[in-house]
Amino acid sequence: MDYVKLGRTGLDVSRLCLGCMSYGVPDRGTHAWTLPEDESRPFIRKAVEAGINFFDTANTYSDGSSEEIVGRALKDFARRDEIVLATKVYMRMQPGPNGGGLSRKAIFAEIDASLRRLGTDYVDLYQIHRFDYGTPMEETLEALNDVVRAGKVRYIGASSMYAWQFGKMLSISERNGWTRFVTMQNHLNLLYREEEREMLPLCQAEGIGVIPWSPLARGRLTRDWSEASKRSETDKVIPSLYSRTEEADRAVVEAVAEVAAKRGVPRAQVALAWVAQKQAVSAPIIGATKEHHLDDAIAALSLELSEEEIAALEAPYVPHAVAGFS
User: Fold this and answer.
1) Is 61 labeled as catalytic in the residue annotation?
2) How far apart are CA 244 and CA 182, in angstroms?
3) What residue range is the signal peptide (predicted)?
4) CA 165, CA 100: separation in Å to the nearest integer?
5) Which of 88, 110, 219, 270 has the fewest CB atoms within 10 Å, counting from its CB?
6) Buried b vs exposed e over 233-248: b needs ≥16 C-beta within 10 Å?
């Protein structure tokens, strides 16, 4: 496993981040397709043994049970000082007022709840899961600065939002001498490339580490257009991200299949290699619910796509409406 600096920090992370949304109690939250703890632990252990030191979860995944499972597994399989543990805040965790969002009250309550579930004294990377239109940016940024100063968080990051919003937040932090975002976790894959327009150039200019979510488009890039999986049939987010009737998207999926066939490798390797080779990208966030998922992801890091292959993969793409911001 190779390691890179996360953005402009001195923090070393593996070139792959294991996304842990797939690990959680199926009956808790809205992800009925998740793996329970006994089925999740082998994947986390295999990732550690493969040299992956970067793990991403969120307070909202499976109603907090993802954090619980990940925390227990990493305590058993890894040394805490070698692990880069990331989680998120924003999504609603309880009914009623102040049950979600990025207010000072919510951030202070949720970081403590995440630490309890993870079984750790600090989080390496604490990310705002989405932009909060109901809270002043200054309130959110000062609260994040304070949890860093309190020693509960080492670095802070952001997730899907408009580039102007991210740029303004970076500017506010700089003016006030507050802890600055070091990462952007955004939606980027061959079926959704809108982040190439403004967000990726902004991150490169500002030294922000990019850690894309859904680099395989929820598996759409790894199988024939007409095929489905348990997750694709039950994941309530997929319909808002990808369409099965968009001819251009179908052409992209077919291009991945063609390049993979010529290379003699699984489609997942080709799709992930495309994301990993993006100059702004530090570490794509990959999911793993089958043994070969980790094997393919690791192999993708060694797959160098030619300029001709990249052109063939990108040629069918057409502009898409913004997706993944809510």
Assistant:
1) yes
2) 35
3) none
4) 20
5) 219
6) eebeebeebbbeeeee
DSSP 91-131: S--SSSTTSSSS-HHHHHHHHHHHHHHHT-S-EEEEEESS-
pTM for the complete prediction? 0.94
Task: Name the residue ranges covered by the structural domains of the chain.
Answer: 3-219+276-305
**Nearest C-alpha neighbor of 100 from the set 74, 129, 72:** 129
Q: How confident is the model at residue 308 (pLDDT cuts 50, 70, 90)?
A: very high
**How many CA atoms, within 13 angstroms, populate the side-chain half-sphere of residue 221?**
26
**CB < 8 Å & 24+ apart, contacts of 321-325:** 322/162, 322/194, 323/187, 323/192, 323/194, 323/240, 323/241, 324/160, 324/186, 324/187, 324/192, 324/213, 324/214, 324/240, 324/241, 325/130, 325/131, 325/160, 325/161, 325/162
Residues 6+ apart with CB under 8 A from 226: none
Catalytic residue among 3, 23, 61, 90: 61
DSSP at 24: S
Yes or no: say if 288 and 41 are a contact pair by the CB < 8 Å rule: no
Task: Tell me the CATH class for 3-219+276-305.
Answer: alpha beta
Assess whether pLDDT exceeds 70 at residue 242. no
pLDDT the model gives residue 326: 78
Specify which residues 157 forms β-bridges with: 127, 183
Q: What residues does 318 pair with on adjacent strands? A: none
